[in-house]
Amino acid sequence: MNKKRLLVADDEPECRQFLSLALASQYEVLTAQSGEEAIQKAVAERPSCILLDVMMPQMDGFMVCEILKSLEPTKSIPIIFVSAKPRESMWPMAQKIGVSDYVEKPFTVREISEVIKRIVEPDLLERRKAPRLKLKIAILVCGKDSLGNEFKVQTETVDVSRFGALVGLPFRVPVGERVEIQRSSAPSPNGFAILTQARIAWNDEVKSSGSYLHGLEFLNPSPEWVVLS
Q1: Do 169 and 223 fall into the same domain?
Q2: Nearest CA to 199 among 168, 223, 165?
Q3: Which helix (H) or strand (E) holds 119?
Q4: pLDDT at 66
Q5: What distance in Å separates the CA atoms of residue 144 and residue 177, rounded to the nearest whole number?
Q6: Domain tally for the chain?
Q7: Are residues 203 and 176 in the same domain?
Q8: Which of 76, 105, 122 is the last residue of a domain?
């Protein structure tokens, strides 16, 4: 399974290096040394979370956050402010623009790791305990591939739970990409009804049995899989 991807945006090389080394065993860490670079990489790479320094030249963390929250590809990415400024003086304003949490410098590896885990994987234990049903349900997956080309692929689920589904696709769709799940709608065999929307949580790097396995995480309440099966 692929590691979740983090983006560390800080104009201090020492901070970028510290976080990259400290988090490398748990996450794939990308870095940016300016607000402009942070926006470019967030749009291109779709990280699971962004650690964003507040005080940066030219474009500070508040401006970067407001831009990211206004863009469709990045508006749902959680942002954690990292700053030497006291939390109590900055947090109310940060909350208003959609910041998920605020960590004061200096911090320990354990402190930052716990904040990231709480935001990136808030209900990981519950998800692992959720019943997974081996149901083969014919669905239509719609979205964009790694080149930005729209696709519609008919496939079927390998297993499902109330949190998501495992499906095979003929090509790899980037982690973080949003897709729409549709299912054939009776009585018209060619009509499809929208079931839910999901994000690609992970994908296999190796193609097996003619397809790449993808883990889908539901963004909306899960469909009634048992009823539909």
Answers
A1: yes
A2: 165
A3: helix 109-120
A4: 95
A5: 7
A6: 2
A7: yes
A8: 122
